[in-house]
C-alpha cells in the first residue's frame, strides 16, 4: 500500500446512513475512462504522487492512503478497464482485491472521465463493475469530470450537458457528478473539498455501499487479522520491552501508540491480501446463484457431484422447488452459501 503523509445483480444490504463528520475516515473506490485520469485525480486529491513514473497503466488494484484536509482518506484504484483487456479470471481477482481493500464497504465509487472525450463507449467501461457489484452500486457512484484546463466550470458544464452520452450516464448515476479542475486544485484545494463534501452528502443519503461479498470479506479479514497478530505476539512483546527501555512517560506512550498503529496497519494489509486470494469461488458461485435464482442454485449444487449434466438437471429441479417452497429455498440457500464460503 502506498502511504501519503499529507496524509447479473445481487441482493444489496445498506448500512443506515451515518452522520458524517470530518473525523470519519473515507474509503473511496476509483474507476476511470483512462489510467491517466485515475492517476491524476489520485495525485491531486492526496496531494502527492503515489504512482511511480513507470506506472502509467493501472492494470492491478492499488490502495493509497493519506491525511487530506485533516481527514483520513483511502483511495482504492481498480484496474483501468479501458486501457487493459484483462482475462475474466484476472479481472475478477483484481476486483476481489478492490473489495478487500475497501471493506467493510466504500463510502463512494468514483468514475473519473474526461469531460472533453465523452462517447457512447463511456458507459460500457462501467459495465464490468456494475456486473460484478450489482446495479445498486450506481446509486453510490459519483461521476468526476476531471480536467486541467483553465476554463470556467459553467462554460464546461454547458457543453457537457449537451452530450447525449453524458446525460445517459448521469441518469444512471442519479445525477451525481462533479467537475474537478486538477490545475486549480494544486493552488487552492477547493476541488478536493468539493469532492469530499459531495461524497459526504451521498453517504448521508444512502449510507456506504455494501453487499454480501463485502460483509463476508470483512468477516474473513478480521479473522485472518487476529491470526496474523497472534503469530507476531513474540515480536510485539520484544518491541514493547525495547521501547520501555528507551523511553518513559509521555514519550513512551507516544511511541507505543505509533507502534500499535503500525502493527494494526500491517496486519490489516496482509489479511486483506490473503482473503482476496481466497474469494474466487465464492464470487463465481454467488454470481451464478443470482443469475439462475436461489432455488435453481440449490439444485445446481445438489447436482454438482454428478457433473455438468447433473448441474443443469439440478438447477431445473431446484428452480421448481424454489417456486413451491419459497422460504425453505431461501433457508437452504443461506445454509449452503455459509457452508460453501466457510470451506473456501
From TrEMBL:
Residues 1-20 are annotated as: Disordered. Gene3D superfamilies: P-loop containing nucleotide triphosphate hydrolases. InterPro entries: G_AIG1, GIMA/IAN/Toc, P-loop_NTPase. Pfam families: AIG1. The chain crosses the membrane at residues 285-306, 312-336. The keyword Membrane applies. PROSITE patterns: G_AIG1. This is GTPase IMAP family member 4. It comes from Carassius auratus.
Amino acid at each position: 500500500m502506498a502511504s501519503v503523509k499529507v496524509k447479473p445483480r445481487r441482493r444489496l444490504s445498506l448500512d443506515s446512513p451515518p452522520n458524517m463528520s470530518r473525523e470519519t475516515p473515507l474509503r473511496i473506490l476509483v474507476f476511470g475512462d483512462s489510467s491517466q485520469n485515475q492517476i491524476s485525480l489520485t495525485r491531486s486529491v492526496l496531494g502527492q504522487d503515489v504512482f511511480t513514473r513507470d506506472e502509467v497503466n493501472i492494470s492491478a488494484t492499488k490502495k493509497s492512503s493519506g491525511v487530506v484536509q485533516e481527514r483520513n482518506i483511502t483511495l482504492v484504484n481498480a484496474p483501468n478497464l479501458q486501457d487493459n483487456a484483462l482475462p475474466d479470471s484476472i479481472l475478477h481477482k483484481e476486483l476481489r482485491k478492490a473489495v478487500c481493500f475497501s471493506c467493510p464497504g466504500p463510502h463512494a465509487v468514483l468514475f473519473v472521465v474526461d469531460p472533453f472525450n465523452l462517447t457512447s463507449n463511456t458507459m460500457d467501461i462501467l459495465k464490468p463493475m456494475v456486473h460484478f457489484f450489482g446495479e445498486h452500486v450506481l446509486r453510490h457512484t459519483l461521476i468526476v469530470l476531471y480536467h486541467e484546463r483553465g476554463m470556467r466550470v459553467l462554460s464546461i458544464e454547458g457543453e457537457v450537458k449537451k452530450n447525449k452520452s453524458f446525460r445517459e450516464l448521469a441518469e444512471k448515476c442519479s445525477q451525481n457528478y462533479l467537475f474537478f479542475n486538477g490545475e486549480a486544485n494544486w493552488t487552492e484545494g477547493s476541488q478536493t473539498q468539493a469532492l469530499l463534501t459531495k461524497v459526504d452528502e451521498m453517504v448521508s443519503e444512502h449510507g456506504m455501499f455494501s453487499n454480501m461479498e463485502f460483509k463476508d470479506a470483512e468477516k474473513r479479514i478480521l479473522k485472518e487479522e487476529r491470526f496474523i497478530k497472534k503469530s507476531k505476539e513474540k515480536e510485539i512483546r520484544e518491541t514493547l520491552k525495547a521501547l520501555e527501555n528507551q523511553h518513559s512517560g509521555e514519550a513512551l506512550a507516544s511511541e507505543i501508540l505509533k507502534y500499535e498503529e503500525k502493527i494494526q496497519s500491517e496486519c490489516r494489509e496482509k489479511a486483506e491480501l490473503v482473503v482476496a486470494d481466497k474469494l474466487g469461488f465464492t464470487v463465481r458461485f454467488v454470481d451464478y446463484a443470482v443469475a439462475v435464482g436461489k432455488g435453481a442454485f440449490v439444485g445446481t449444487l445438489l447436482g454438482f457431484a454428478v457433473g455438468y449434466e447433473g448441474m443443469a438437471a439440478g438447477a431445473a429441479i431446484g428452480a421448481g422447488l424454489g417456486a413451491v417452497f419459497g422460504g425453505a429455498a431461501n433457508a437452504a440457500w443461506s445454509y449452503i452459501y455459509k457452508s460453501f464460503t466457510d470451506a473456501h
